[in-house]
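Q: How would the structure tokens look for this protein?
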Amino acid sequence: MAANPMTIDEYLAALSDDQRAALEKLRKTIRAAAPKAEECINYGIAAFRLNGECFAGFSASAKHCSFYPMSGSTVAAHQDDLKNYKTTKGSIQFQTDKPLPVALVRKLIKARIAEINS
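A: Here is the predicted structure in token form.
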């Protein structure tokens, strides 16, 4: 991992090919679901900001990748959809060979944006 990546491209460049491919797919899905969002690095992870507020992010670790809706309530509200993934209060972990389905990511992004706008 780059010491202090300044962009998502820098963050992804430091990853293994399989991690980069899985997270690039996730990146494209987030961008498609929230085309007005800005990319950034937030707390050392790749993230997306809308109207000044971070609403989603992703990262890679040695054993898995993670998607962060940056909301414990969003993760909790979608537990049925997430039953095949390990979750924490604010993250969803997945393996590079079993990425999150595009439809699920879109659903989570739309829920998160609705939460921000409410």
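The first strand starts at residue 38 and ends at 42.

The chain has one domain: 8-117.

Upvote if useful.
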